[in-house]
Give the backbone structure.
Amino acid sequence: MEFAPLKQNLQDWITQQWVILFGKKINAAENEWLLGPFGETTGIGVKFIQQLAKNENLLLDNVQVDKGLLQSISQLDLPAQELNKLSKDVIDFYENTSNYDFDLGVKWNPVFKMFGGLLKILFSNRIQQLNIPMGADKDSEALQSEIIHLIDEKTKLVKRTIWLRTFKKSGQVVYSGVYEPCILPNGTSCIKAIFPLPNGSATVILNPTVGANGELILNSSGKKIGDSGFYFLLHDSKGNLWTKFIKSFRDKLVVSSENEKITAIQTLTLWNLRVLQFTYNIKKFI
């Protein structure tokens, strides 16, 4: 049996060993669509950005002003009929994300809220990643949203897009994630969100469609490795690559616009039970 690296925090080692025990060893060359940056054992947060730039010989782009999660909405490869129907405000949000402010509201299912608090105590506060608010459901918190592009020194092309979200009031990191388009083995174009963790990552692959009212619907509801969905990835102590596909965990994000007001509703479910729901009120300031 293979083992996770020993020189790290105990709870991180236990979760990684769980992935090894119940996951699958995969070949990196055959699964490039799934790969992304891994985090260090010393924490994620803002430090991850500096580490990633150093590890991949990239530079921080301090020139471009309007920065988006996507360079172009065409990267989603939507059918022409759906692309024509997609809200222009939603398109602008994804192509110029840095020009928007966010308020975040969270509604927990009481059944799962205790586990969310445990996750925060054991992992989130320490590694500065996946810091989900635990306050009253009616409360909302203002987020500081920063799109960071890491570019190739010679070509000046964007190689990594990082979305760093922190609470404006406390400065605490909520999410630090790498976002990029990817193509599944079956040829479907998706968005991949990579949240670095110690020695690995939590990666969500979302399949895009357009709703009847021009909203963008991103869904991770696959049934097996190779589909959209939620994946843990890690390297064991020998450098082998492992993944665990969590079929029971699903993520659905609906980004819509009405009267130039953008709202994003993200629903996380486990075994078809709602775990929590995020509501983002999004306002353009430029």
Residues 10-284 form one domain. The chain has one domain: 10-284. The CA atoms of residues 61 and 156 lie 8 Å apart.
